[in-house]
User: Fold this.
Amino acid sequence: MALKLFCVPYAGGSASVYYSWGKYMPEKIVLIPIELAGRMRRLAEPFYDTLEAAADDVFQHIKKALCPGDQYAIFGHSMGSWIAYETARIIWGKRDAAKPVCLFFSGNYAPHVSEGTGKLHLLPDIEFQYEVLRLGRTSEIIFNNEQLCQLFSPIIRADYRILEEYRPSRSVNFVCNCPVSVLCGDMDNITHSQAAEWARYVSGEFSVNFFSGGHFFIHDSQKDVVSHLACFLTQHTNCLASCFQHN
Assistant:
């Protein structure tokens, strides 16, 4: 039996963005960064047609990685938060699927806040790169380096396409039946009231937590973020174990 934390990357990111978290993560928590299709070791695989397809792929990955008796949580940052949410929808829709002990939605608005009208992914390369950089959600290093640009531009464009074509229901028709923690950067453009909109998707404990940094605060405040995840996850795993002991 193990306690596992599955981490879903942001647009243009790969599993490697979470590798450095290991030095801060307690040994009792197994960190499992998820590699999405079309990048790194899965570079030969086609990009997802929809965000829901990405979520189904993540669900299949989680299902294969779990052993009997394992407990787990899912973390997703930016695009990854919506993939994590849609993955939760799939999990709770399957009676026999093991449920996460908690969920972490990071660096993004709640799905119903999304307008779903963006067209950045249709722009020519130069305009696309300019707009993505203007939003502050991709490092300038990628577009300033020719080799990195050739490698990551198609990935970022594909990710923006599924984000911009994502059409979540305006009415909240799914509620996570587990504790949820929302994480935001204090220099990002998400306010506390906007982050609190995630509470509509939660039936139990819910919290909003701000960390020092902008959109990529998960790197700027890496140690604090990992410490929060570990404490929150451990707390609710222990609570769950205590409930079983008393029943």
User: Anything to note?
Assistant: The chain has one domain: 3-115+171-246.
